[in-house]
Amino acid sequence: MARATSRGPSAWAAFAGVILFVLGSFNVIYGLAAALNDSVITVGGEGVIIWDIEAWGWIHFGLGILLVATAIGLFLVETWARVVAVILATLQAIAQVTLITAFPLWSILIIILDVAVIYNLTVKRGEVVVTGGRAGR
To answer: Does residue 52 lie within any of the structural domains?
Structure first.
């Protein structure tokens, strides 16, 4: 009996892809806003730890483009996308630490979502095999 295989992403990889796509889109929007007109970004705290708001904007714009591209790679089940997604989520979590004095709640939320993405892409789960209409592990 031939086994039908699907080439779609697993539910967890799809979840990670959606989160990466949304976070990447936010990074692109906020990065462009900060880089092109840093008076648009309102800083409630002391500011960014390491750079000024314009430099932060360009860094997050570039990171956002990479995150969106990687999310698309996860949706297409590309082999490189899982590794790159873990690396970029780690870099984004580190980059959010530089913003924690300016945007504490936002930074903590993004770090939590990055950890969720890293967890979902690195934990080994049993594969579900469908044979004769019954699913087994």
So the answer is: yes
113: Cα within 13 Å, side-chain hemisphere: 20
For residue 133, the SS3 value is coil
Q: What is the pLDDT of residues 56-67, one digit of tens each?
A: 788 889 999 999
Q: Which domain holds residue 26?
A: 11-36+46-136
* Beta-carbon contacts of residue 78 (< 8 Å; ≥ 6 apart): none
| Domain assignment of residue 5, yes or no | no
Instruction: Print the SS3 string covering 33-90.
Output: HHHHCCCCCCCCCCCCCCCCHHHHHHHHHHHHHHHHHHHHHHHCCCHHHHHHHHHHHH
Each residue of 72-128: pLDDT tens digit?
A: 999 998 889 999 999 999 999 998 887 788 788 989 999 999 999 999 999 876 554
Based on the structure, what is the number of domains in the chain? 1
Give domain status of residue 120, yes or no.
yes
